[in-house]
Automatic annotation (TrEMBL):
Coiled coil: none
Name this polypeptide is given: MMPL family transporter
Broad class of where this protein is predominantly found: membrane
A Pfam cross-reference name: MMPL
Transmembrane segments: 167-190, 197-219, 231-250, 282-300, 312-335
Key words, A-Z: Cell membrane, Membrane, Transmembrane, Transmembrane helix
Subcellular location: Cell membrane
Membrane transport protein MMPL domain: residues covered: 49-343
Signal sequence range: none
Membrane topology value: Multi-pass membrane protein
InterPro entries: MMPL_dom (IPR004869), Mycobact_MmpL (IPR050545)
The keyword Transferase is annotated on this UniProt entry: no
Organism name: Streptomyces rubrogriseus
Length: 387
């Protein structure tokens, strides 16, 4: 462990550049990340074969049509508005067919079924949904009726969009709270920032591998992935929460021992090497356990479980062995004394938190340094007395 830390701290710039380039390469597929709810049947099952037959015979859009509901004051107005909407929607690009309007018994509601020319989990269908809703506003103003677009496909697209919009806010909230807590624990500014940047590299690499395997189909055969498609929409949020917790756990394990060595007067590079030697085995064992556990999920039959297991296993592997055990020692050695810098006003505001019983260790060291009391000598008494 110390030899590895010595090697990474000897040429820190080279280590940082190589690791950043490698993780950046793994993160490139994230630019093509596509979210969806999926949930289709197994292609090898009877339901999957039937769906494939329908897609080949009638088009992939028949598996997930869009439903347009017109609501108005009376049958005539509502039917006319629905027919106008149908005529306008069928001329939109990406629409395969539009069913004739079907009125309810009361006549106040009229239903239209729109069949896209693309599958329910494609970006083309999401574009069709957006164009239908854009055209809806003009029809509502002209006819005075209300048009709603629904159906399983529309709901899945809306959920994916909502989760995609909430993901950056969720990441900022989680990382902001973690930065605050790490600043209090380590009483430094650079250490929490370095931990957060390292997590972003790990997250990008794990999502990139997920996109390459489940969307692009790389290694799909050996991993038993029968059909490629969008990434499950709530998987990135789960990945951020679980992976960030594990990453910060490994960070505290490593850096807390480095801080202990530094506070005892060791030079920055020596403190990094000694602290790494004391804590690297714990991080290695913990990471290997999690990799084996998450890797076992890849053997499951469900696509959702496969994706979750692969993303978490790759994320822990990258974060533990590349980021925490390679990038962190190099960055700490490169920062030197600046790694533990904290502004004076923060020193007065932030509480002094005891990390892993550090104050008890100091008290024990001070007690050992005190002079030991000399025992009192007791005079020996004779065994017999003269009477």
């Amino acid at each position: 462990a110390r030899r590895w830390a010595t090697a990474t701290t000897r040429r820190p710039w080279r280590v940082l550049i190589l690791c950043a380039l490698g993780l950046g390469f793994l993160s490139v597929p994230v630019t093509d990340l596509q979210l969806g709810l999926g949930g289709g049947p197994d292609p090898h099952s009877s339901a999957g074969r039937a769906q494939k037959l329908i897609d080949d015979s009638f088009g992939p859009g028949h598996s997930g049509p869009l439903v347009v509901l017109a609501q108005g004051p009376d049958r005539a107005t509502t039917t006319a508005a629905a027919q106008q909407a149908a005529d306008r929607i069928k001329n939109l690009p990406g629409v395969a067919s539009v069913s004739p309007p079907i009125a309810s018994d009361s006549g106040n509601s009229v239903l239209i079924q729109v069949t896209p020319s693309s599958g329910p989990d494609t970006r083309a269908t999401a574009t069709v949904l957006s164009e239908i809703r854009s055209a809806r506003d003009g029809i509502e103003r002209q006819t005075g009726t209300r048009l709603n677009v629904t159906g399983n496909t529309a709901v899945n697209i809306d959920v994916a969009d909502k989760l995609s919009a909430a993901l950056p806010v969720y990441c900022l909230l989680v990382m902001g709270l973690a930065l605050l807590l790490l600043t209090v624990v380590f009483r430094a500014i650079a250490v929490p920032l370095k931990a957060a940047l390292g997590f972003l590299l790990s997250l990008g690499a794990s999502l990139g591998v997920l996109v390459a395997v489940f969307q692009w189909g790389w290694l799909a055969g050996p991993l038993g992935i029968a059909e490629t498609g969008p990434v499950l929409s709530f998987l990135p949020m789960l990945l951020v929460g679980i992976l960030f917790g594990l990453a910060m756990d490994y960070e505290v394990f490593l850096v807390s021992r480095m801080r202990e060595e530094y506070t005892r007067g060791k030079p920055p590079t020596e403190a990094v090497i000694r602290g790494f030697g004391h804590s690297s085995r714990v991080v290695t064992a913990a990471a290997l356990i999690m990799i084996v556990v998450f890797g076992g999920f890849v053997l499951a039959e469900m696509q959702v479980v496969k994706g979750m297991g692969l993303a978490l296993a790759v994320g822990v592997l990258v974060d533990a062995f590349i980021v925490r055990m390679t990038l962190v020692p190099a960055a700490m050695a490169l920062l030197g004394h600046h790694a533990w810098w904290l502004p004076r006003f923060l020193r007065r505001i932030l509480p002094n938190v005891d990390v892993e019983g550090e104050q008890l260790t100091r008290q024990a060291t001070n007690l050992r340094a005190l002079p030991h009391p000399t025992p009192h000598t007791v005079p020996s008494l004779p065994d017999t007395y003269d009477v």
